[in-house]
Design brief:
The complex is a heterodimer of chains A (287) and B (255).
Chain A (H helix, E strand, L loop, with lengths): L3 H39 L5 H5 L14 H32 L3 H14 L3 H16 L4 H25 L3 H8 L5 H29 L3 H6 L17 H9 L4 H30 L10
Chain B lengths: L5 E12 L2 E12 L3 E5 L6 H7 L10 E9 L2 E2 L7 H7 E4 L11 H11 L5 H14 L3 H4 L12 H14 L4 E5 L7 H14 L4 E5 L3 H7 L2 E6 L2 E7 H6 L4 H7 L5
Parallel strand pairs in B: 3-8, 3-9, 6-7, 7-8
Antiparallel strand pairs in B: 1-2, 1-4, 4-5, 9-10
Classes of the chains: A mainly alpha (287), B alpha/beta (255).
Amino acid sequence: MNSKGFRKRMIKDRLATVAAVACVIAALVPLVSILVDVLIKGLPQFSFEFLTGTIPPPGSDEVGGIGPAIVGTLAAIGIGSLIGIPIGIVSGIFVSEYGDNLFGRTVRFVMDVLAGFPSIIIGIFAYLVLVVSLGGPNAFAGGLALSIIMLPVVARTTEEALKLVPTSLREASLSLGVSRSATIRTVVLSNGKPGIITGIMLSIARITGESAPLLLTVGWTAFYPTTLSQPMASMPVLIYQFAISPFDNWHDLAWGASAFLILLVLGLNITVRIIAHGGRHLFKRRR
Amino acid sequence: MGESSAKIETRELDAYFGSNKAVKGIDIKVKANHATAIIGPSGCGKSTFIRCLNRMHEVVPGTRVTGEVLLEGEDIYSRGTNPVDVRRRVGMIFQKPNPFPNASIFDNVAYGLRMNGIRDKAFIQEQVERSLKQAALWDEVKDNLDASGVSISGGQQQRLCIARAMAIEPEVLLMDEPCSALDPIATSKIEDLIFDLKNDYTVIIVTHNMQQAARVADWTAFMYLGELIEFNKTKRLFENPEEELTERYITGRFG
């Protein structure tokens, strides 16, 4: 039993384990260091003033806040969701339930290509369509860019969620004299709902941190937005602008905004997991 | 058997999966208000055959049916016949119990009624109770109608599926090996149920269990390699089969 070959295998096993653990640590170092760095520099900025105050003018001593950028980001996400989620869900249902043909395969392929598009290109598209025509940066253009980014995410997760609904349940409904479309509306959608909600949350988390398309489309202002056709502030653009500025109070705001954005995305991802797994297995493996 | 009493009659019925012919030229006349069993070795096309009787075969992509299936003399495959209407008249119970997991026991049974446009709450209530009683499940679940359809045992789930199918009052009940996923006690409950049901419904049951066919069915059909080998009164088929192939199968010499 304790032959030489066995000892050799034990040593190999140990070495492989050590190598695997080392790789995991190497992968975790940047993640943890970014998180720690941003939170250490950003969390101390958090205050009522920080969350609601307006952006201080350049060179002033005011502390100020990022209120307009938070509102702007939420507005852009809201517009993006209003356009992207319904279209994404409907395309996902179509591809899953009626997509076993050339058109369905084409839609699926287009969604895959779209998912891999650099977001700056999508930003340029929105710029050409809505910024040029409306005569300046505006919230609609940002929302449109974000909706195009979230569309493939929603569509593909909806499709996957519906495909997981067992054939036996569809057949149960069909055998009761219920039409195919009514079966999809009731049995298929209600059993696929958790998966669809997961897709929606993931797509929102994805666009929350998008900066390139917003840089091109929503522009910049230091004040709270009043209409959606005007330029407005947003978190990613604020971080970009302030990080490259020469002012210390702007640097602080950029750190604070970064921490806020990271916590927002982290919060959304945790919410997704709670919805998907009923909260009991927060870190369960994904299938 | 008289021509007029055939509830379901098939003529030259062929069923395909792609280019593979699974059911070959079946002619059979099934009597109303009797239980008919279909037996045969695995893969002989029994399940495919009964799935043709309520147009469930065509739900699977790449499948095709030719020939006629007459339900009270009218071809359910004729142009202009809606499969949805056929399935309202010909209900089906599947091999594995398939209650809707995110619906209550009550809603499972009421589903078919509601989806067929019935809004009268008192009527739905009445029909759910009647169906659950008919499926011999009422006493076990009457205090628990809001529980999930999958919170009960496998045998109870199968009876729930039977109640669900009966709630819309079909004329024919097709059962595709309804006991194959159940233990002997649950099986005997379902068999008792079939015995009662055949007074009011035409029951066609696919089974790979010959004793089960002998216990519940008045008529039995033996299928082999997609063909109908013999169709006879159950007693006759088991005691004195006309075909040698039937005899070899029921005596366990192949299959």
